[in-house]
Amino acid sequence: MKKRFKSLLIGSVAALTMLSACSGSKNTAGSDSGSEGKEHSISYSTWANPGEPAYSGMEKFKEIIEEKTDGSITVELFPGNQLGATAEQMEQVKLGTIEMMSSGDPGMLEIEYLSLPYLMKSNAHWMHVLESEIGQEWNEKLVSDMNVRNIGILPRGPRVISANKEIKTPEDMEGLKLRSPARDYYVQTFEALGANPTPMDFGEVYSGLQTGIVDGQENPLETFYAAGFQEVQDYIINSNHMFKPAFVTINEAFFQGLSEEYQDILLEAAKESQAYAEEELAKSEKTMAEELEGAGVTFIDPDVEKFREATQSVRDSLGKEMWGEEAYQQIVEMGQADLE
Length: 340
Prior knowledge:
Distance between the termini: 50 Å
Radius of gyration: 21 Å
Largest sheet: 6 strands, mixed
Number of strands: 11
Order of helices and strands: HEHEHEHHHEEEHEHEHEEHHEHHH
CATH topology of the largest domain: D-Maltodextrin-Binding Protein, domain 2
Helix content: 40-55%
CATH superfamily of the largest domain: Bacterial extracellular solute-binding protein, family 7
Oligomer: single chain
Shape: globular
Strand order of the largest sheet: 7-6-8-5-9-11
CATH class of the largest domain: Alpha Beta
Number of domains: 2
Strand content: 15-25%
Structural class: alpha/beta
Number of helices: 14
């Protein structure tokens, strides 16, 4: 009840904020560019919970913004989907009832499909694509079509498979009832690997594993750890089949209502908070792996090249369908580039 009351209260405040904006509030969209000295507040929402590396990155963002603007911009964080499901949060950012969010939803399929299996080597490769000419065109489309802008990412670990059997090659996946999200690129990936992908709401996965409705699941290590899947799964297979970061999205009208100096501060804070979250993720992954091994989980390093080869047709067919052959080949090159 407390959580629901808080969400309703926040929604009421957001509605009042919109009304005040229409009557000439200091945060009015399209205000003049000289906004130094004016006060601005940012409501920043996320699925992540305190303690998760992505949320630590958001805390760093808040710290940087408030310090560099001498408190002229304040940031209030709303973790754990307090303001609704991802789609609801995205709608609020589009409308301007909240200013920012981070989630796995980038707002458009052209960006989301960078999650195709083994297309991106790392979170850094995601940024390499997003900062390219192709990525900038996507961001311009987000601005024009949805009134939102992507200003960065918060890293998540590579997605791995868990099961109650050893898996070293795609042949070992044959017939495995594997929970997966309902998106076609997930389903086709695991079909190509020989598994039986079973879409299921994440909130049902633990009981599904416990009762045998599904045999395994796939997620970043931090999600496996936070969900307590070590209680019902014996093996983690380091397939690293997808990278899918969280996207930092801001309302475009709010962003344009800031001075150029404040816009630069926000963009720089997004970069610094990403780097900080990456450091936190690296540290936490090591700690989590040690704790999971102590709890009896066995980590397996499979023949990743065979997994990559088995999913080649998924990458090619969905990638060309989404972007066209020429753009797809450019994305493949950027996703596998040597960034050292």
